[in-house]
Amino acid sequence: MIKKIENKTVVDYRPPKAEMDPHRPHFFLNEPEKQADGNIKSVNTIFLTNRECPFKCVMCDLWRHTLDEPTPKGAIPAQIEFALDRLPNAPVVKLYNSGNFFDGKAIPRDDYHDIARLLANAEHVIVENHPKLIGPFIPEFRNLLNGSFEIALGLESIHPVVMPKLNKQITRENFSEAVRFLESHGISSRAFILLNPPFLKGVEENKRWCLESVKFAFECGVSACSIIPTRDGNGIMEKLREQGEFEPPTLSALESVFEKALSLNRGRVFCDLWDLNRFLDCEKCIDKRKERLKMMNLSQEVLPKIRCNCN
Ligand code: SF4
Ligand SMILES: [Zn+2]
Question: Which atom of ligand 1 lies at the shortest distance from residue 59's CA?
Fold first, then answer.
């Protein structure tokens, strides 16, 4: 029985990590995304390989494709170059690093100039970072870019009991301060929000707190929210599921909360579609429902529901 969640508890339940090459990105892809100016633009997303995030959030499985040692100097520019050589030209680039872009052991600060040089043609650059990891190094990096800059911050859940239990080590205030700091430096932000975080029970309760978290993020000033259905697969989440402390979301709940969040008309809302089949609640209509969510991400409009015997 898990009594107290600490870094060690999270790590103890982990399955083995993958072997990673520090000079190759973990993955990369190109997809369209609606931008803050209302235009749909081509986005290159590069999933960088780097030193593991020092935080140990309960629900995180991003550590699987990370390194144990600090990332060697020059490896990140080499990864970006490798990916961009194989991707189409795109005005927007996301550098997602399974952690925090401004963690100097993950992305060496001595590499900032080379990274910025590789992004010289990008109109807009997005990275991810922990809300507590803010400081002068952020505007310093932004000043090296030719285009605009945005940071994706994990808010996860503002539920007063769940938020501290996630071991993310943030408060609502930390999040709002981070957004304000970025705004004061002309940097926009987006929030990652969980549907069905661990320690929260009931379909309606989970939908409600997901939506409350989206509202809070917009009140803080983010320009977009990404809703992420919480997945198990990192060891401790399976254990929590066994103990009744984690209920995976259903696709219907995800659809419902996404529709409501879009209808707030407070900013862009995206729904994470990765590995959606695991939330399957009907085999017959899954493909059409996935396509609908994809089109809703792109259009930012609530589209007609898919009719099926299941609903
Ligand atoms: S801060 Fe992000 S990358 Fe780090 S453990 Fe938490 S969820 Fe994972
Ligand atoms: Zn169905």
Answer: 7
